[in-house]
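My current task is to audit a protein record that another person submitted. Alongside the sequence sits a line of tokens, each denoting a local backbone shape. Please read both lines and tell me whether the tokens look consistent with the sequence. Do not assume that whoever made the record got everything right. Thanks in advance; the entry in question is below.
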Amino acid sequence: MALSGTFEDISFGELLQLLNVGHKSGRLTVWRGRGDEKAEIFIQDGEVVRAVSRRERGPEVVYRILGWSDGEFSFERRQETVIREITESTEHLILEGMKRYDEWQHLEEEMPDMHVVLRQRAYAVNARLEELSPEAQTVLRLVDARRNVATIIRESGLPPTDAFKAVTELLVEGFVEEWTQGTLEGDVLAARDRLPEPEGAIDFNTDSYFSSKRRLSEQKGMAGSALAGDIRKTDPSRT
């Protein structure tokens, strides 16, 4: 049996319930956008036994996708041997995901800044990434100058209160900042492969790693030209 559709037609939670009630076995693939965000959910007799995405694996993958408001899916029925990595029942996963969603909605109502869009500050990410808590590093991967705080919390896969604390940590420590301008297409820079796959604009002002390296390179180039000129003046044979 092949089943496909969008989360506008049926939510991810409803889809899991449908497969659970029918005791289906197979592989559920979910994605959105151009496939940049993609995960595979392995199901045996209606129970989620394994969930893997590009960045993580386990129940957190399920919780993250339960926060999606859009996306596509394809379920392929098959019998295959899969080592069970998720011990929670499908029902528990759905209930926990709903609990986190309710907590997120409460936070969104209570906090007026939940609709602020954030962007990464490249210099801080490169210099001090290891200083961040694991939760803050998870949240940082979602900061792309497109998502607002509410979306980041909902899609982080973390308990909403933990996700909000992680956002606060990133702001206080200067890893991210409020982004009020439009997204700059094509202005994304990969900083020594250290930036966690950003998709939007990044702060590359005069204090950033990029501009500092550029200034240093320019200064070295000017110094080299000046030295070469002095050598030619003092040694005619080199002209």
About this structure: Helices lie at 12-21, 59-66, 90-110, 122-128, 134-140, 149-155, 160-172, 209-234.
